[in-house]
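Treating backbone geometry as a discrete language has practical consequences that deserve illustration. The sequence in question and its structure tokens are set out directly beneath this paragraph.
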Amino acid sequence: MIAWLYVFLAGILEIGWAIGLKYTDGFTKVVPSVLTIGCMIVSFSFLALGLKTLPVGTAYAVWTGIGTVGTAILGIVLLGESASVIRIVCIALIVIGIVGLKMAGE
């Protein structure tokens, strides 16, 4: 169970660094750049800890899925990106895929 917690935390931090990239302005802004790189390092570290016991394909897919869904939602909320019906449906399909992979990976 702790391995899945590591993957979940890694996914949350992936959201942080993906959104953080937008605020670094091409790594020209120091504080956002340092925070983004910090999130990257800690995210990869948590993923590596989870991969000690979890199947790589499932854990990696869950990690990237959490990051993708979270980043898409924050893009809509924070950055004014499209919230079209098709986009929301696609985000929901990713969530269904993440849940399915986690259930199949145990």
